[in-house]
Design a protein that fits this description.
Elements (H helix, E strand, L loop, with lengths): L6 E10 L12 H10 L3 E3 L5 E5 L6 H21 L3 E3 L18 H10 L1 H4 L5 E7 L3 H11 L3 H8 L4 E2 L2 E2 L6 H5 L14 H13 L13 E3 L5 E8 L4 H23 L9 H14 L4 E4 L4 E4 H12 L3 H4 L2 H4 L1 H8 L2 H12 L2 H11 L5
Antiparallel strand pairs: 1-3, 1-4, 1-5, 2-3, 5-9, 6-7, 8-9, 10-11
Length: about 375
């Protein structure tokens, strides 16, 4: 029997002016009102046009879905009452970061002081999924192994084709914006949790960071919780996509754990190779080719995602996630959030229409 791999989901939402459709500072009014309803499950983010929410610790995908739905409905209702729209996309289609205000908080001013325009321009919206682990030793083992699957699942999440009014040619330009930060991207392999902890201690000792949360990799063993935290994905348009991605991350962790319990290991691939697949996923989403490192050939991305679904098939029933993960095939038929945004733009040639579409999709399925 598989152990219970709990879930925690964080989403970052954009606050939109209903008239101009630009990003707009809500002066923390949404957060202040939401605190009265959902307490510490909502917080301000670096830019004032961003609201971040987080679920409680959820036992399974059904609990996670209920919590994310409540959070989306609550934020949308409060924002609407205050005269704002809300949307979920990895980037805003046309708002410029130069016009956006930074949240008044010492931590954010410290980041701006260190990172300068790399921080000011980091106007992006992500999805973070925490999967609970029995201990940190198991967490680092699973983190090492599941790195290979990050581009596959990331390709399904791509939802940021536009940046500052331009069609970037990428399905996820959000990742290109975030690349300007240090300690981002695919993490290295660590032979043990002690090796990882010593790496963090060295960074703190040499004043690279003051705490382990400033390691912003696409995947990390969380510094405070017994979780593996997946940080690679764009925030999805809809709750269905969010829960599908969370289910996939949970399932690959459970599968690697099951192999470990059978004294089997998944092949550990070099970070540089995995980065090749990440770049392809950010550029083409599910419409390109990824490298099958075992066969040393390019393979249609959809084919590798179907292989991933086969790989996790023997754990999804125990996790209760078969139904939500089935949405993966829907995305491969109808397209990712990026594909849908691009289709709206192809039909209208209007980024305002794209922004309205993002807002309209926010509560679909909630």
């Amino acid at each position: 029997m598989l152990k219970a791999f709990t879930l925690g989901i964080e989403e970052e939402y954009m606050v939109i002016d209903p008239v101009t459709r630009e990003l707009r500072s809500h002066e923390q009014k949404i957060v202040e009102q939401a605190h009265k309803v959902i307490s510490d499950q909502v917080k301000a983010e670096f830019h004032q046009a961003v609201v971040e929410v987080g679920t409680r610790v959820c036992a399974n995908v059904d609990e996670a879905r209920a919590d994310v739905a409540l959070l989306r409905r609550t934020i949308a209702q409060i924002a609407g009452d205050l005269g704002f729209n809300i949307g979920a996309s990895g980037t805003h289609p046309f708002s410029k970061w130069e016009k956006q205000l930074i949240t008044d908080h010492p931590r954010y001013f410290e980041i701006v002081n260190e990172m300068q325009d790399a921080a000011r321009s980091n106007l992006i919206f992500g999805l973070h999924v925490h999967v609970g682990m029995e201990n940190r030793e198991m967490a680092i083992h699973i983190a090492n192994s599941v790195r290979y699957f990050l581009p596959h699942i990331f390709a399904l999440s791509t939802n940021s084709p536009f940046w500052e009014g331009r069609n970037t040619g990428f399905k996820s330009f959000r990742t290109k914006v975030f690349d300007k930060f240090p300690r981002t991207g695919i993490p290295d392999y660590f032979a043990s949790i002690e090796e990882y902890d010593n790496y963090i201690k060295l960074l703190v000792k040499t004043n690279c960071i003051d705490n382990a949360k400033k390691v912003w990799w696409d995947l990390r063993v969380h510094p405070f919780f017994n979780t593996v935290e997946f940080r690679i994905c764009d925030v999805p348009l809809t709750i269905d996509d969010t829960i599908m991605l969370a289910g996939l991350f949970q399932a690959v962790c459970a599968k690697i754990y099951k192999l470990r319990m059978q004294n089997l290991n998944f092949i550990i691939y070099n970070r540089a190779l995995i980065n090749e697949n990440k770049w392809r996923a950010s550029r083409y989403g599910i419409d390109g080719y990824l490298i099958d490192f075992g066969k040393e050939v390019e393979v249609n991305t959809r084919s590798l995602i179907f292989e991933l679904l086969d790989f996790i098939d023997d754990v999804v029933d125990d996790l209760g996630s078969r139904e939500v993960i089935a949405a993966t095939t829907r995305i491969m038929e109808t397209g990712t959030g990026a594909d849908k945004q691009l289709q709206v733009f192809a039909d209208t040639n209007d980024l305002v229409a794209v922004t309205d579409f993002i807002h309209k999709e926010f509560l679909r399925g909630c």
